[in-house]
Amino acid sequence: MRITICGSIAFYDEMQKIKQDLEVMGRKVQLPPEKVIDERGEEISVKKYYDIRKMANDKENWVWDRKSEAIMNHFKKIEWADAILVLNYEKNGVPGYIGGNTLMEIGLAFFLKKKIYFLNEIPELSYKEELLGVKSIVIGGDLNKII
Question: DSSP for 82-146?
Fold first, then answer.
């Protein structure tokens, strides 16, 4: 099975660990990129880019160009996959956090008729109905439930 991991870049370390665990189980796995190119053409870690992006204003074009590229590249990974696994850990005091970008990825996966797995319970969010409506499967941290 081919799986694309989705979730906040704040969870990148967890993504790498889950990827390793799934690969040991014989799955093929894709993640968001580990590095991006900054405004000087130099590679920076995706976590450093995430920190820069949180502080960026609307006029910092290179930041939003990279964001656009990242969205398109990850959409292609979702298209490649048989399923997505959403890593929805606690973030900003929200248990099971699912942000805007991840919600877009879930919508794409649903449209492409991919299986949608959540690592943890679906949180109480204003768009919980949409998350339930895509017929996702909550695995409660048990990667063996991805079938």
Answer: SEEEE----BTTBTT---HHHHHHHHHHHHTT-EEEESSPPP--TTHHHHHHTT-EE-TT-GGG-
Cα-Cα-Cα-Cα dihedral of 63, 69, 75, 79, to 10°? -160
> How many distinct structural domains can be found in the chain?
1
Does some domain include residue 111?
A: yes
pLDDT digits (tens, 9 = 90+) for 48-92: 998 888 888 888 888 898 889 989 999 999 999 999 999 999 999
Residue 95 belongs to a domain: yes
The verdict on residue 43 lying in a domain is: no
pTM of the model: 0.92
Q: Give the sign of the dihedral formed by CA 75, CA 3, CA 145, CA 10.
A: negative
Domain assignment present for residue 120? The answer is yes
Domain with 21 in it: what CATH number?
3.40.50.10140
3-class secondary structure, 45: strand
Q: Are 131 and 122 within 8 A, CB to CB?
A: yes
